Each structure stands twice: as structure tokens, then as C-alpha cells.
Amino acid sequence: MKKAVAEFIGTFTLVLFGCGAAVIAGMGTGPTSIDILGIAFAFGLAIVAMAYGIGPVSGCHVNPAVSFGVLLAGRMSVGDFITYAIAQILGAIAGAAVLYLILSGKAEGWNGGLGQNGWGEGYLGQYNLTSAFVFEAVATFIFLVCILGVTQRGAPSQFAGLAIGLTLTAIHIVGINVTGVSVNPARSIGPALIGYGTAPHAVAQLWLFIVAPLIGAGVAGLFFGSGLLEADKA
């Protein structure tokens, strides 16, 4: 139960801070506005905060794709994976719901968006499905290589949270204009479901932000599980 609660809180925080930065600060003007770099750091710093806050309890996966990669690397059980994924999705939905409540109090200027992921005509850089799928799969693979690498036995664990957060920041800097960056099925599910009334297309496109991250994470997990990327034992 402690692990599930920790994962719920961690994913809640990631969605509230990351998507909140994109929607609230991203639609400001002048000194109240942030750009791609600011949004990227909001996601990355949320991970850093939670890595040190809940990491000792659950490992701070806050992402079903991360848990899937850890599972295939042989570092968690199927039962724990299911528990983690449920807690993460519920946390993301709760984070998006709180963000919705905050934004609904804005007098004007909010179009109903909650930082949903997407692709195609009318969405940010208007990249096509292939571009979106390739980015999400490859970026998640790289993210998991970092996570599984810095958390393996013998790695300097005190710096793991910082390395993981900065990797997520770099991924966002590159990919925000492509898909808004998911690399996390829960992060996509929460805003898509809560914001369905104003952006139903986000739900229709959810499959990509579930399938592509799981593929990328799965490949990384298999690389570590097979020993290909595991450090040699002293």
C-alpha cells in the first residue's frame, strides 16, 4: 500500500506541475510566460523532487512505461507492476482533475486544454503519426536506459534522481513540438480523460502514447534483463 500511495502522489505531482506549467505559465504574456525550456524544466524538476521524496518508498517510477521496463529487466514482479500502473494512472487523473479545477477559475483566455499529447494538423509542430511514434518510442528507450543504468547495483544512487530529471528535461526540449512529450502513458491518460469535453481527439490518439512508450521501455528493459547493458560485476 505504501508503494501505491507513493506512486499516486508522484504521478499526481508530475501531471500537476508539468502540465500546469505548459497550460498556466505557457499561456501567460511578458514576465508571466515561459517557453519550451521552462516547460521542460517543470517536468524534469517535478521528477527530481519526487525521486528524492518518494524514491526511498517506491523507486519513483511514476510512469507505467518505466515500471514495464523495470519488470522486463527482472527488477519487479508482475503483481507489483499492476499495482504501480493502477496507482500511476489514478494519480495522473487526479492531477489533471485538480489542474482542471484551477484553470476553470480563470476569467478568460483558457481554451479547455490540459496539456494533452497529440500529433497531426493543428497540434503544435504538426508532425505526422510516424514522427510522433518514432519520437515517443526512441525517447522512452533513452529515458529507460538512463533510469535502469543509474539505478543498477554499483551506480552512485545519490545522483540518480538528478540524472533522471535532467534526462526528462532534455527529452522535452527536443520533443515538445512533436507530441507535447509523453514517454509516460499515465501522463497522457489523465489530461486526455479529464479534458475529453473540449479535446476529444486526445482520447482518440491515446493509443500511440500507450503503445510507443511501452515498446521503447520494453526494449530497454530487455537489454538490461539480458545483461547487455548491465555493468560487469566486480
UniProtKB/TrEMBL annotation:
Asked whether the UniProt record includes Metal-binding among its keywords, one would answer: no
Q: Which Pfam families match?
A: MIP
This protein's UniProt keywords: Cell membrane, Membrane, Transmembrane, Transmembrane helix, Transport
Q: How does it sit in the membrane?
A: Multi-pass membrane protein
Q: Does the keyword Membrane apply?
A: yes
Entry GO terms, CC: plasma membrane
Report the subcellular localization: Cell membrane
Drop me one GO molecular function for this one: water channel activity
The similarity annotation says: Belongs to the MIP/aquaporin (TC 1.A.8) family.
Name of this protein = Aquaporin
Q: Which organism is it from?
A: Pseudorhodoplanes sinuspersici
Classification of source organism: Bacteria, Pseudomonadati, Pseudomonadota, Alphaproteobacteria, Hyphomicrobiales
